[in-house]
Amino acid sequence: MFDFYAPDLAYVPHTDKKNFLGGKITKYYMQTVFPWLFTVDSEGWGGNASHSNAGWEVAPDEDKTFELFRERALRGESKFDQPKNEFINNLGDFIFVPLQLPHDETIRYHSNLKVITWAVKIMDWSYENRINVIFKNHPANPASLEDVRQFCKRMDNCHFIDHDVNIHSLFKQAKAVYVINSGSAKEAMLHDVPIVRFGRADYNHAVIEGDINDLDRTWQKVQNQPNGIMKENYRTFYNWFINRICYDSTNIGSFLKLR
């Protein structure tokens, strides 16, 4: 196709260089968890993007970017429409696990895990350690996670909920948030909660790297993480990611960065 049209530059959505095999003229773009913001990159998106392990070189902004997005989170807004219902916590401390779609490309190409295997290992570990875990279904395709729901029923400390409470009410009450590489981790940052990732993401350095085969050590990292460093990482990441990496579809001026 490129040979036929001979473009000077090509923009390809929702894939990356490893899978599309585009040449030097190809840029890959992807919508972020904030629907009006997109990434555009020569390697891909998410965990395969060239910026996924980049340093956060950005001028200080006095946390203005973080606070702007935090206000949105406190209003209960998210990528998917959210119910107004707040989660009422009768469990005590819990780990929150917002589930990802098993067939999603970010699972297939940006991690070495299967959602069900990962979820069950967390269940087994949490049961042995008597730690409450809340798994939340994905609103886009709830049926795809039915196997996780069924496994949850076997353990009294594991709870499975659907899209009937606002996700932000779970983030702000959780002791920690565990994800493979979900974009929702960026929303969780806005509540200053410890976050653990088990796959590759474009927020690699902002959160704790977990080991699904050593969940005791992973939990120790959560408990030992200095709160001040965590907060500083989240705020610096937001300043860098929003202002240096993202392109704002509501502001044509932001696309001048493509030059």
Q: What would your notes on this structure say?
A:
This protein is an alpha/beta fold and 259 residues long. It has a domain of 146 residues: Rossmann fold (3-Layer(aba) Sandwich). It contains 10 helices and 10 strands. Strands 6-5-4-7-8-9 form a 6-stranded parallel sheet. Strands 1-2-3-10 form a 4-stranded mixed sheet. The longest helix is centred in the C-terminal third of the chain and has 19 residues. It starts with a helix and ends in an 11-residue tail after the last strand.
What is the gyration radius calculated from CA atoms? 19 Å
Total beta-strand segments: 10
Instruction: Give the strand content.
Output: 15-25%
Distance between the termini: 24 Å
Strand order of the largest sheet: 6-5-4-7-8-9
The CATH architecture of the domain at 88-233 can be named as 3-Layer(aba) Sandwich
Rounded average pLDDT: 95
* CATH fold label of the domain at 88-233: Rossmann fold
* Main beta sheet: 6 strands, parallel
Spatial shape: globular
What is the CATH class designation of the domain at 88-233? Alpha Beta
Query: Secondary-structure element sequence?
Result: HEHEEHEHHEHEHEHEEHHE
Q: Give the assembly state of these chains.
A: single chain
The structure class reads alpha/beta
CATH superfamily of the domain at 88-233: Glycogen Phosphorylase B
Number of helices: 10
State the helical fraction.
Answer: 25-40%
Low-confidence stretches: none
